[in-house]
Design goal:
The complex is a heterodimer of chains A (292) and B (122). Chain A has 292 residues and is α/β, with parallel strands linked by helices. Chain A has helices at residues 4-59, 68-71, 94-111, 123-131, 146-165, 217-291; strands at 78-84, 115-121, 135-140, 171-181, 184-193, 212-214. Chain A folds into 2 domains: 4-22 and 252-284, Helix Hairpins (Orthogonal Bundle), CATH 1.10.287.80; 26-251, Pyruvate Kinase, Chain: A, domain 1 (3-Layer(aba) Sandwich), CATH 3.40.1380.10. Chain A has a 5-stranded mixed sheet with strand order 3-2-1-4-5, sandwiched between helices. Chain B has a 5-stranded mixed sheet with strand order 2-1-9-8-5, with no helix packed on it. The chains are: A alpha/beta (292), B alpha+beta (122).
Chain lengths: 292, 122
């Protein structure tokens, strides 16, 4: 029979766990709102930039004089995957889904004879890729506020430009959790080099409008390409942080509910045990009295 | 009227109907008005002015960026922007833009100082 005192301690410890998880849920919910706003408001800039870039690149497609950094190299030997995870755990399947997808992607690339290297953003990605046998070209962590997120995006941009220009990598992809809704996140790829053509995504066809450019296309491209990397990386960092808070919110909500169920069950056992003890004592007293 | 939409990497700063906007293009200032031909240009650091009736309504300092004109929309993608209205030599040094610029780019910073200290800009 379970000890009454043990049960009591058990109940109180589950109660305090529930307090913690429900507090974490609240925190995640309020952080989510902020992160979501940021992610949504930054989308305007990146959409416009993408539009400009694709109307620039689209117009000169026939000339095929586009720089390699835009269209990628012809024979790809090495591929860089930027994995954007979270710094902290306790957010359900957020990181493990991401890593599972990245492993699949790496295997696919390997079967085509392409070597994959990693740029890890977030503590979880760093520790995960350190455990498996893969070359890590750079790590970034502690993305706990907006300034830091911008700073990291800048560093990532510099890093990838340097890596591409030194011929260390031939194509660059970024993998992050896309914020779909408060209860759904989806690991998503975005191609940085070669440039993802946006006409697949939106029906607005930039080629329909013939823009005048000032200064000329190549100079504009030179200015735009690093800027595009920055916004793409920054955008996915923001998107991933919104998704992280959403994931944490749902998983902490579940944890709180489970703790509640557990408390109910434990309380039931506690009451039963208590009653059994009383009955037992009564029987002892009565049978003692009868014996006299 | 043309719809002027000013966007920074973080957010939409403002969006409103204006008669004319004068922008510091890399190869010279230009005015954005209704039915301008489709046009994309980069911006140099300098002053952006919103005009109506040949008068400057509002002035801003932009540290660089891009502009896209298409139909009735003028979209300005800025790196950093600061309204000149409440800016003067005493307090502009405390603004975030100035602090960022001071760290990053002395040249842009000088232009900023020129723009802000020139009374005719206001």
């Amino acid at each position: 029979m379970p000890n009454l005192k043990d049960l009591k301690t058990r109940i109180s410890s589950v109660k305090s766990t529930r307090k913690i998880t429900s507090a974490m849920k609240m925190v995640a919910a309020s952080k989510l709102r902020r992160a979501q706003e940021l992610a949504e408001s930054s989308r305007v800039y990146s959409d416009s930039l993408g539009f400009i870039l694709s109307s620039l690149a689209g117009g000169s497609k026939e000339n095929s004089d586009l720089p390699e950094i835009l269209v990628g190299r012809k024979n790809t030997k090495t591929s860089l995957l930027i994995v954007n995870s979270s710094d902290r755990g306790l957010c359900g399947g957020f990181n493990s889904n991401l890593f599972r997808k990245s492993i699949k992607w790496i295997a696919e690339k390997k079967s085509k004879g392409i070597e994959v290297k990693i740029l890890a953003i977030g503590k979880k990605a760093i520790s995960y890729f350190n455990r498996i046998d893969i070359e890590i070209l750079g790590t970034f962590d502690d993305l706990n506020n907006n300034e830091r997120q911008l700073e990291v995006s800048e560093q990532v941009k510099n890093k990838i430009t340097e890596l591409f220009e030194s011929n260390s990598v031939d194509e660059i992809f970024i993998l992050y959790n896309k914020f779909v809704s408060a209860i759904a996140q989806e690991p998503t790829y975005k191609s940085l080099i070669p440039l993802e053509t946006s006409d697949e995504k939106n029906n607005e066809e930039p080629s329909n409008i013939s823009f005048e450019f000032e200064p000329d296309k190549n100079e504009l491209l030179e200015y735009l390409i690093p800027r595009n990397f920055l916004t793409q990386v920054y955008g996915s960092i923001l998107e991933s942080s919104a998704a992280e808070h959403a994931a944490r919110m749902t998983s902490m909500d579940n944890a709180t509910r489970n703790a509640g169920d557990m408390i109910d069950r434990l309380t039931m056992t506690y009451n039963r045990t208590r009653q059994a003890v009383i009955t037992k004592e009564l029987i002892e007293i009565i049978s003692g009295a009868e014996a006299v | 009227m043309i719809e002027l939409k000013v966007v920074s990497p973080q957010k939409v700063i403002f969006q409103k109907e204006v008669e004319m906007a004068v922008l510091p293009g890399t190869e010279g200032d230009f005015a954005a008005m209704q039915d301008h031909s489709p046009f994309i240009s980069s911006l140099r650091p300098g002053q952006m002015a919103i005009m109506s009736n040949n008068k400057t309504e509002e002035s801003f300092f932009v540290s660089g960026g891009l502009v896209m004109l298409k139909g009735k929309i003028c979209e300005v993608l800025v790196d950093q922007i600061e309204s000149l209205k409440d800016l003067n030599n005493q307090n502009f040094k405390n603004t975030k833009t100035y602090i960022d610029l001071e760290e990053n780019n002395k040249e842009v910073n000088n232009i900023f100082e020129q723009v802000v200290s020139n009374p005719s800009y206001k």
